[in-house]
């Protein structure tokens, strides 16, 4: 766990924000003053169950795995957060109750983070961020519901195709075990599935 | 399916809005002008899979059941929407793609609805609604993630206790079959569970 010594650019996060709202230069600088940077080493955790979430993260480079472990010891991956994605545990971040999640870096990962205090301040200082987060949460909610639906209604094969479509850059960066956990099958079943698909 | 002839009060929806933003009288009237009322008869559907969602709903009275049916014919209840709740299918509402859901009235239900067109207009006319929906979606997202977690991590007994805590008014209004579907067990298992609990 180390703070970044050589700061990286805010260009990517500003571009992400500009999808939904326009910030002038003064607002951009004010926004940046509320952010912090961090480099997370491969395999390091930034969250473990029982901890209260202090920050929301934007990924500049690398990959974070967000997951929980059920009472039978089975791992459930909620999300791989990659470049240009937002992640965290919004329930714990908002309620300041302990999280049920692990967040671990699968590669060395550069993040930009905003604390809960600065997040609250942001809406006071730059009210148009209400719009940015309204649209961001709206899309997250729709995507989250869609994925839950698909976990129920799609076959394992179709869930694997969806993973490949959603995360084309991850297919060869993430372990087979993690892909299997994300789509909700055993690694053995995923191996059979991949052989079946490659023989089509 | 009938439009309401005797309009009901907008008091409840305005009170719901006032949790997060203050509207002056002019804004209240403008907002109300963008809404429509409807009474849904018991057992009527306002959404079936394949249809594109036209409206978001606020429940004034009654109860709607939001559910999907998987390819094995098993019903999965996402939500019981009761008085003072918002519901719909946000993914279909936003993307204007066909829904996977059924929404059915379990009782005669009074709703206030906003169309997609008026929803978009609302943010132009009264920008502070960005804040209202930012907070609403933020809470929905946190609740949705929490419920998905609990479906994985809690026992059926604890899921039943959560249902009773979340919907105290529904325990005797909704069928045992529907409660079983919501908590993800068979009606037979729920019956065993309730007997076990009542004997404690």
UniProtKB/TrEMBL annotation, chains A, B:
| PROSITE patterns the UniProt entry points to | CNMP_BINDING_3
The chain positions of domain Cyclic nucleotide-binding read 19-123
Tell me which InterPro entries the record gives.
cNMP-bd_dom (IPR000595), cNMP-bd_dom_sf (IPR018490), RmlC-like_jellyroll (IPR014710)
Q: Name one Pfam family in it.
A: cNMP_binding
| Superkingdom | Bacteria
The protein's name in its UniProt record: Cyclic nucleotide-binding domain-containing protein
């Amino acid at each position: 766990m180390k703070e970044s010594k050589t700061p990286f650019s805010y260009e990517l996060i500003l571009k992400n924000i500009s999808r939904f709202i326009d910030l002038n230069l003064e607002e951009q600088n004010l926004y940046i003053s509320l952010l912090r940077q961090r480099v997370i080493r491969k395999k390091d955790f930034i969250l473990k169950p029982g901890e209260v979430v202090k920050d929301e993260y934007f990924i500049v480079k690398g990959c974070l795995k967000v997951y929980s472990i059920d009472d039978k010891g089975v791992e459930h991956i909620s999300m791989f957060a990659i470049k240009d994605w937002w992640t965290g545990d919004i329930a714990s971040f908002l309620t300041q109750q302990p999280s049920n999640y692990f967040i671990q870096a699968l590669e060395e990962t550069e993040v930009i983070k905003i604390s809960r205090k600065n997040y609250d301040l942001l809406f006071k200082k730059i009210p148009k961020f209400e719009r940015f987060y309204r649209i961001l949460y709206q899309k997250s909610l729709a995507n989250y519901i869609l994925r839950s639906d698909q976990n129920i209604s799609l076959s394992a094969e179709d869930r694997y195709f969806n993973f490949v479509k959603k995360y084309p850059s991850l297919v060869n960066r993430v372990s087979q075990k993690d892909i299997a956990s994300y789509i909700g099958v055993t690694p053995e079943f995923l191996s059979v599935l991949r052989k079946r698909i490659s023989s089509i």
